[in-house]
Design a protein that fits this description.
It is a single chain. The protein is built from eight helices and ten strands. By secondary structure, the protein is an alpha/beta fold. The strands form three sheets. The protein has a six-stranded mixed sheet, sandwiched between helices. A two-stranded antiparallel sheet has the order 3-4. Helix 3 crosses helix 4 and helix 3 packs across helix 7. The mean pLDDT is 95.
């Protein structure tokens, strides 16, 4: 059985959903600490334009369920204005915006919950069949490699998939010593736009077109 264990990023890039689609189970790693320089609350769209969620109580001493999105902030309104400015003329902008607005209207009580709603929305929109485990809380108290291994063992998985960036963080031999094969997924293209937020692709491509690209990766 194949499993991926990932923090719930804010409108993550295409490779994130390739990873999600490639496994049997995807675990929402929301027990992890918030990282200010990470992609929990920010991303990049067309024209290398950064986008960022305004937060309440953000601290690297908290996990992602202890931090809230400030939906009442002017900065949240500016975020939506930026997306509209960049993509209003794109053919599928309305569908992409609807995913954001449904997540907002669900009244999420944390950054993790909001991002999970976005991911759920995209998972459904693309017709993905991967089982989603909504929280890693209670599955492990470990972090990094040991936490991933414990979660994988909990579900009886013998393969863990991770983005290619994880090759700098995780040792395949260490996972193998625990009876688990670690594999890294890499986009099979070097196109700059594929490193942008999935919001970019949701605006410019149909669900069928995006879904057709979910298998365009290399496993290392």
């Amino acid at each position: 059985m194949k499993i991926a264990i990932m923090q719930p990023y804010f409108f993550p890039y295409l490779g994130y959903f390739q990873l999600m689609n490639a496994v049997d189970i995807w675990v929402n790693m929301d027990h992890a600490s918030f990282i200010k320089k990470g992609f929990m609350h920010k991303n990049v769209i067309e024209g290398e334009q950064p986008i960022r969620l305004p937060l309440l109580g953000a601290s690297q001493n908290k996990n992602t369920r202890e931090i809230q999105v400030d939906f009442q902030s002017k900065d949240f309104g500016k975020l939506k204005t930026t997306l509209e400015h960049k993509y209003k003329k794109a053919p599928y902008f309305d569908q992409a915006l609807a995913i954001l607005e449904r997540a907002e209207s669900s009244a999420p009580d944390s950054l993790a919950a909001f991002n999970l709603q976005l991911i759920h929305g995209i998972h459904s929109y693309l017709g993905m069949e991967t089982k989603v485990v909504e929280t890693s809380i209670g599955l492990t108290e470990q972090k990094k490699a040991d936490g991933m291994i414990e979660i994988a063992q909990h579900f009886g998985a013998d393969e863990v998939y991770n983005p290619i960036g994880g090759a700098q963080l995780y040792d395949k031999e260490y996972f193998r010593s625990q009876g688990i094969e670690l594999k890294f997924l890499k986009l099979d293209t070097e196109e700059a736009e594929d490193k942008l937020s999935i919001f970019h692709h949701l605006c410019h491509s149909s669900a069928e077109e995006i879904k057709s690209r979910l298998n365009d990766y290399i496993l290392l």
